[in-house]
Design goal:
Keywords: Metal-binding, NADP, Oxidoreductase, Zinc. It is globular and about 65 Å long. The protein starts with a strand and ends with a strand. It is built from 10 helices and 16 strands. Helices cover 28% and strands 29% of the residues. The chain is an alpha/beta fold. Strands 3, 5, 6, 7, 8, 15 and 16 form a 7-stranded mixed sheet that branches. It has 2 domains: 3-128 and 276-339, Alpha-Beta Complex (Quinone Oxidoreductase, Chain A, domain 1); 132-271, Rossmann fold.
Length: 343
């Protein structure tokens, strides 16, 4: 049986532990049905990687492979594939219910895969799929915003955590859709990053929102996209949102939140999880293929840009532990990418 190199785990340990992520060799998979076999060129690290790997009292009989952001080349296709052929350059986030991409080759359902932006290298492309899909679905599906700038004139959105992975692309997409974008950031470098990537204004998420919004000329915001500490920001969001406004979050709560705070304003609250479509095999799963292709077209047209800030090489346990450590700190700006087969 052909084998391949990968990085996995059998125990859930603190990232400082040398066995929290380990170099392994496993069987090379074979594509069936709608699956593509992709030669992995670059991967990026997201908070979901850190959350799944976090210490817990559990062991795996076979090594578990993490990783949900890929750019690479199609090596082979399953019998039901119609969207791609061997040699195609692709990028995607995959499914959290399947083995991840921290390996030389990776299987993924072609219906959640897009054609890689031609203007980006593999590392630049790998920085985008999970965060860009999250931002796109949140803005245009969950919050129901129009993609037309003419429809959004005078509409405001507050993006909490504007300098992180999702925030860095959400600010760009929202600005391109004609929204007035207010991002939260607390440090000079993250403030500058947010302003360079689509935010027109910034406020500090460690201070009350509404007084800061009023100081820059806003009595409320029409939409809020929360990318950090939902329960901690709940009261501030409820105060800052406009009557009949909408709030979307991607961050699970650690404590109960009081929905009554939204009642008098008839505010909508909705979750966004990019993995929902692949987890449940929803009838509209191919929407992620279409979204990634639309994003690639916008990138190649110069309307959006990569959020890559750090490149590591090669893909091995040492570099993955370093990337996890940085993401776990909660202070990263943009995205960390590991190049595996960069040539």
């Amino acid at each position: 049986m052909p084998t391949m190199k990968a990085v996995g785990l059998t125990r859930y340990l603190p990232i400082e532990h040398p066995e929290s992520l380990i170099d392994i060799e496993i069987e090379k998979p074979t594509p069936q049905g709608h699956d593509l076999l992709v030669l992995v060129k670059a991967i990026s690290i997201n908070p979901v990687d850190v959350k799944v790997r976090a210490p817990k009292d559990r062991t795996e009989a076979a090594p578990r492979i993490l990783g949900w952001d890929v750019a690479g080349v199609v090596e082979a296709v399953g019998s039901d594939c119609t969207l791609f052929k061997p040699g195609d350059e692709v990028y995607y986030a995959g499914s959290i219910t399947r083995p991840g991409c921290n390996s030389e080759f990776h299987l993924v359902d072609e219906r959640i895969v897009g054609s890689k932006p031609q203007s980006l290298d593999y590392a630049e492309a790998a920085a985008l799929p999970l965060t860009a899909l999250t931002a796109w679905e949140a803005l245009f599906v969950r919050l129901g915003l129009s993609q037309s700038p003419a429809d959004n004139e005078g509409t405001t959105i507050l993006i909490i955590g504007a300098a992180g992975g999702v925030g860095s692309i959400a600010t760009q997409i929202a600005q391109a859709a004609g929204l007035s974008v207010i991002g939260t950031a607390s440090k000079p470098d993250s403030i500058e990053w947010a302003l360079q990537h689509g935010a027109s204004y910034t406020i500090n998420h460690y201070e009350p929102f509404l007084p800061q919004l009023k100081a820059i000329g806003f009595t409320a915001v029409d939409y809020i996209f929360c990318l950090n500490a939902t329960d901690q920001h709940w009261a501030q969001m409820a105060e800052a949102i406009a009557p009949q406004g909408k709030i979307c979050s991607i961050v699970e709560t650690n404590a109960p939140v009081d929905l009554k705070l939204l009642q008098s304003k008839s505010v909508t609250f909705v979750w966004e999880l990019m993995f929902t479509r692949p987890i449940y095999g929803t009838p509209d799963m191919t929407e992620q293929h279409d979204i990634l292709n639309q994003l690639a077209a916008r990138i190649d047209a110069g309307e959006l840009r990569t959020t890559l800030t750090t490149r590591l090489r090669p893909m091995n346990a040492l570099n993955l532990r370093e990337a996890h450590k940085r993401v776990e700190s909660g202070s990263t700006i943009g995205k960390i990418v590991i190049e595996h087969n960069p040539s």
